[in-house]
Design a protein that fits this description.
Elements lengths: L8 E3 L3 E9 L2 E4 L4 E17 L4 E3 L74 E12 L2 E3 L16 E10 L3 E3 L17 E9 L6 E2 L13 E5 L11
Length: about 240
């Protein structure tokens, strides 16, 4: 990263932050860079800008294969199958009673990691769940690239990981990019799809296209359920003020 000035951060090449809380004045992600959130990461900023070539990613940075509150069940020994991880919905079942994981966590305040899919003994490992992205932007969040917390696809015969969480509060939301917390796909033969994760975006003013915000379940032996998406701004009756 380049420090443009005290308190400012420009990320112009790939960079990884481990779980924790980070605070800057103005953050710009540019030049095709990806800022990777490994685990559960909180970013406090006055302004955050992601250009159209760049992203924040917590893909596959949640619970590992077969772990987490919504872990998918592994397949039986000498056979194949693994259930998809659950989070925003239930994970898809795999073959031979390798059940998908259960839904958990809050749709309104989503802060949990996604769960891992079940592994298939002798075939492949379940996909890891998505990580947890928390953005607290006191002025303007401009997203022209992507913010993602997707689950990983399962290995051969194994379940996909569930999507993780994206939780945003900002005064002004702009740009034309995308948010996603999709579940990973279960793999042939017999892996269940991971469930979608959870996304909640709260703002005071916005022109952001909500159709670019998704938490779809992954496909598989049985598909994972879709997760939850909340995009909420102020109204005359119930104004929202975060700052």
């Amino acid at each position: 990263p380049n420090l443009a000035s005290a308190g400012d951060l420009v990320v112009n090449s790939n960079m990884t932050w481990i779980s924790g809380e980070y605070t800057y004045d103005n953050v710009t992600i540019t030049n095709g860079a990806t800022l990777i959130f490994d685990g559960a990461v909180i970013l406090n900023a006055t302004n955050l800008t992601i250009d159209s070539t760049s992203s924040i990613s917590a893909d596959g940075k949640g619970y590992s294969a077969g772990s987490g509150p919504g872990a998918g069940v592994g397949g039986p020994v000498h056979l194949y199958g693994g259930g998809g991880g659950g989070y925003g919905g239930n994970g898809g079942d795999g073959a031979y009673n390798s059940f998908g994981g259960i839904a958990y966590g809050s749709a309104i305040v989503p802060v949990d990691l996604g769960s891992g899919g079940g592994s298939s003994p002798g075939w492949g490992s379940g996909g890891a769940g998505g990580g947890a992205v928390r953005l607290i932007v006191s002025d303007t969040l401009t997203v022209n690239g992507n913010i993602t917390a997707n689950g990983q696809n399962g290995g051969a015969g194994s379940g996909g990981g569930s999507g993780g969480s994206i939780y945003v509060t900002t005064k002004i939301l702009g740009g034309s990019g995308a948010f996603s917390a999709n579940g990973g796909d279960g793999m042939w033969p017999g892996g269940g799809g991971g469930a979608g994760g959870r996304i909640a975006i709260y703002y005071n003013f916005s022109a952001f296209p909500g159709e670019n915000t998704i938490a779809k379940g992954g496909i598989g032996y049985k598909n994972g359920e879709d997760g939850t998406v909340i995009i909420h701004g102020p109204s005359l009756d119930t104004p929202i003020t975060f700052f």
